[in-house]
Amino acid sequence: MNADVSLALGEALEGARRATVGDSPSARPDPEVAATARRRQFTHAERTRILGAADACKAPGEIGALLRREGIYSSLLATWRKQRALAQRSALESQKRGPKADPLLAQKQGMAQLTRDNERLRRQLAQAHTIIDVQKKVSSLLGLLTDEKPQGSS
Domain ranges in the chain? Predict the structure, then answer.
């Protein structure tokens, strides 16, 4: 009887092992989706805070410690400083009043002007060719040849 119990227990354990291995049709893949890495985005307040802290750093190595603590690169800090300087410069410049020019509209208008100028110049060229042709025909009808020397001179 002891052998029968151990045999039954062994078969039960073997069945449990097979179920966990995934050989049974009821086994399903893990439905959890792995998270993808996303780029960090800093708000204006965070950027201002970090730039202020970087400007307050005086001792050697403080900026490096700040960068490590915030988890940012020095190039990002440099980019933020350039953006801040550009924003300060543009704030001091005088602003034009009225609607802003649309660059696409300006490009289309420029292209239309060039097309009109091209057509006008083509018409003038055709007119000049017509005038030259008429002058050649009149010259040949009157017998005036431009290559001949005048008859009265020697």
Answer: 44-90, 102-146
